[in-house]
What we know:
The protein has helices at 2-26, 30-43, 48-60, 64-77, 82-96. By secondary structure, the chain is mainly alpha-helical.
Amino acid sequence: CHARCALRRERDRTAARNARGTVRAFAGDLVGAQSDYRDVLQAEPDHAVAISNLALLAALSGEPERAYELARRASALAPADAVLRANRDRLAEWRAQPARDQLPQLPCDS
């Protein structure tokens, strides 16, 4: 049980860091949110939701190429996740627009 319990605790901490990043992002603390998502990726490099959340931060920062690449990677890691696919598709459309005056309407993370 020790190994399973330790793994469960680490997953709980990772989920909490990802959630805190989302709260920070909604509060306008994009630097803090990015730090939390990067912490998640230190523990779980293929955490699709944290990668998708970084894609959304890249979009908010006006980085369409980076946003799309991160969203593409996240959806490839979790192809069954409809929210991640929708984020990827909307960011692809946004990236292709010559004038990016407005961010695409994106669903929340999964």
